[in-house]
Amino acid sequence: MDVSQLTPDEVVYWEWGFFKLNATIVFTWVVMGVMLMVAHLIARRLTASTDVPRGQNVLEVILEYMSDEIEEISGGDRPGRYLPFIGTIFLFIAVANLLTIVPGYVPPTASLSTTAALAGAAFLAVPAYAILRDGLRPYLRNYIEPTPIMLPFNLLADLSRTVALAVRLFGNAMSGAKIAAILIAVIPFLFPVLFKALGLLTGFVQAYIFAVLAMVYIASGMSVTEKPRGRARPHDRSERRID
Amino acid sequence: MIEAQTVVAIASVITAGLTTAIGCVGAAIGEARGLDRALASIAQQPDEAARLTRTAFVGLAFVESSGIYCFVIGLILIFANPFWNQLAGG
Fold it and tell me: Does residue A112 lie within any of the structural domains?
């Protein structure tokens, strides 16, 4: 992939009629393969004893962190309902962005198709979670609160925030890849390395932002019809909240 | 005599550059002000750092949206200019 190609969509490896195998799909498969393999290698030796293997420890830390974050945003809701969706998004984007440290790899998030698909999933998840928990009527009433005048603005906000979600990730990942390519052409030593390091940081922050925003949108879809608190929580959580 | 297509090209490139420049300045100033306050708040109340950081990130992402719209306009002007295709096709 060179400087003139804007996204990995334009790098086509194989073509057969309507079907194109471009770099975006190939590198998405690479990311999926890496994640599946790591998860399989670690999950093969899961243990409940106190002598926890290193890999399991890492996964538990990540999972714990994501659950805590989701619980905070959703206002004490059980994180288990959202964890599969939010966690998948976060891990996929994080791995896809962090693998840019491998030479020759182009992050699939540098293609608008990937990020639009992820944002579309988040867009659909908002009504899905709200309707599953509260039912259709409370969710629809959300749109005409506090007055029906707000209806077009609420609809517009739903659309524009989805577009912003997709383009934010795309713009950051794409510009990171492009700046690295341009710098390699201009100053080919040491300087691109620094930008690559900065790209790793922004890539990870973007994964965090995407997941947190998706969770915030899901939570905001249900915030008006919040149920009373005080549901039974695991003991360790409530104890930690006191101190 | 400059052709119509050339005029469109010149206008598109200059506008794309201006859009990116002005849009970046606006978003950068806004985000910097937000970050400034967030850091001051974290310094005042380190206990609430997690909540403040998350709120700051979400807020920054919202502020960034305006800059992103400028970025999209710039991309459309350069890579998917509707007027350019109209002139080239006609």
Answer: yes
Query: Is A214 within 8 Å of A86 (Cβ atoms)?
Result: yes
Of B61, B68, B79, the CB nearest to A171: B68
Question: How many CB pairs below 8 A link A and B?
Answer: 33
- CA dist., res. A143 & res. A125, Å (int): 16
Residue A2 lies in a domain: no
Residue A3: inside a domain: no
The answer to whether B80 contacts chain A (CB < 8 Å) is: no
CA separation for the pair A214, A209 (Å, rounded): 8
Give the helix/strand (H/E) hosting A14: strand A12-16
User: ipTM above 0.85?
Assistant: no
Q: Which fold has domain B4-81?
A: F1FO ATP Synthase (1.20.20)
Report the gap between the CA of B12 and the closest CA in chain A (Å). Answer: 18
Provide CB contacts within 8 A for A8, sequence distance 6+.
A1, A22, A23, A24, A27, A106, A108, A110, A111
Mean pLDDT over the full length of chain A? 83
Write down the pLDDT at residue A223. 61
- Tokens read off for A198: 């900065």
Contacts of B68 in chain A (CB under 8 A): 164, 167-168, 171
| Residue A1 domain flag | no
